[in-house]
Amino acid sequence: MIFAGRLAKALAVALLLPLASHCGKKEGPVRSLKLSEVAKLEKVYAPRKEAPPSEDIKTVLPQRAEALGDMLLSRRDYDSSLASYLQILKDQPERHDVRYKVGVILLLSGQYEAARREFSRVLQGNPQMVEAREGLGLACLQDRQNNEAIQEFRTAVSQEPQRAKSRYFLGLTYLIADRPRDAIPELETAIRLEPKNPAPYTTLGQAYLKLKNYSQAVTTFKRGLEVAPENKKLNYQMGLALANQQRYEEAFPYFLKAGDEAQAYNNIGVHYFMEGKYEEAAKCFQKALDLRPVHYQEAKINLERALEKLQTLTFGKEEKGKGN
């Protein structure tokens, strides 16, 4: 329920990869993607065909190619920025910082095998570039090569034990690989190293949910909400943790902050349904539809399922009564 089929959403958080932002020939400092860029990453996950380089990119002076690529990348024009970086690599194949950017763009574009090749080439030339190691791990993770991803993140952690990002990626991958007990210490370390980042709290709480340790999950989500009280993921997960303890009145306001009132009633209804309380579930689903009568197919389907269960139970009781 927590992670099935949600690797892309995990990567939307995980892909805070650093991108080189300078224009010189030497490798230099790196920056992280802005939150505004991260929020739109999922839109580019579907594999896309590379667009041919424009005439401007083909003819631009080599010393300006990286600046142009960085500008295009900041505008999320991935195809054109890729063409600009490839122009640099044609003449300067040893530019590991530029090849790293190519790997990131391929990863965001859903070309996971190609991304793995580029990150591997970077690491052949610069095995200490932990950002490339993380990129390789993420490409493996998105390609469902969990064991390979774990190995890459372990290597990154061994290279820089105090790097919170590598710890988080390793914990996230353990959880996706259904190893929540292994995830917990890595995520706790990530929180200790970066206590203001809400992502490790969310994933740590999910690890406790996976273990059905709901009280510890609630405690973890509370810690996260102290850091980021408006975070929708943390609020939603807190609602789940409370609902799994049948604390529905307490769960409702968290579901409300994670979405809207209709979604909150639908979420509570799902938990009633899972308990076999179909009448209560049906009332919640009906309330969700009353609040949002159009464009809420999920609540409509859930209501139909709950009513079917009620009819089955009612029919069974009537048949049992006739038999007596």
Provide structural commentary:
It is built from 18 helices and 2 strands. The chain is mostly helical and 324 residues long. Helix 15 (248-258) crosses helix 16 (261-274). Among the domains are: 1-144, Alpha Horseshoe (Serine Threonine Protein Phosphatase 5, Tetratricopeptide repeat), CATH 1.25.40.10; 262-324, Serine Threonine Protein Phosphatase 5, Tetratricopeptide repeat. The chain has helices spanning 7-14, 35-38, 55-59, 62-74, 78-91, 96-108, 112-125, 130-142, 146-159, 164-176, 180-193, 198-210, 214-227, 232-243, 248-258, 261-274, 278-291, 297-323, and strands at 18-20, 30-32. The protein is elongated. The two termini are 41 Å apart. It has a two-stranded antiparallel sheet with strand order 1-2.
